[in-house]
User: Fold this.
Amino acid sequence: MFDRFDIDDLLLRALKEDMPMGDITTDNTISEYSKSHAYFISKDEGVLAGVDIAKRVFELLDSTVAFKKYFNDGDVIRKTDVIAEVEGNTRALLKAERTALNIMQRLSGIATKARLFSEEVKDLPVKIVDTRKTTPGLRMLEKYAVRVGGAYNHRFCLSDGVLIKDNHIKAAGGVKKAIEMVRGNIPHTVKIEVETENMDMVKEAVEAGADIIMLDNMSLDMMREAVRFINKRADVEASGNVNINTVRDIALTGVDIISVGELTHSVRAFDISMKFK
Assistant:
């Protein structure tokens, strides 16, 4: 699923953030030899994501911890469902609790949102994708949660795909000029996507040979016109202020991809609690 070293580094940084000089409450109220048994209970309904990552948080503080899960990532969980149980050193359980919960709650919220959007267009030939509007440091996990929910990933970072946006176009001197400049400096295997705001820009992008044309904040009528004009000469992506009430109408314009910043930038965390037995 992930590179273990990358995940461990991320989780250790999160744990250090939460207790840079130890846990002065736990370390002074709980015996270092104490053992406890706790369970995770859902107080929400939606799609689970991050349960194995939560398990790893506990393992980093207690290598002998016993973690038993009853649901897997991608499963639909409901209120009062027991997601997993954990048994081990009490101090370790208490110190890992908030970091494990924060991650599982955040990722489950994203997976649930991604599932809602995907279900809205499941009968149409369109992909729902995320954006780079992610929490700094957590992009790898958040984009994983998008996939768990049934949606797809856009580019992970600025290094793995060309996306010429409005400011690039202004600085370069136009759509055609920007495409020509980037094409002369990248491998032939890399696709070029360009953001457009009106039909003149769409026509210029097609003429310049863009591989993917993004229709940014266009009306439905203009999107339909753009899809007809492009006529399969490039993949078409719709973007800008997409929400659960508009996504299906946008999909019906004939676009191939719909990017949704809401999948990650404004998600409500899932409600999960850890309770000691």
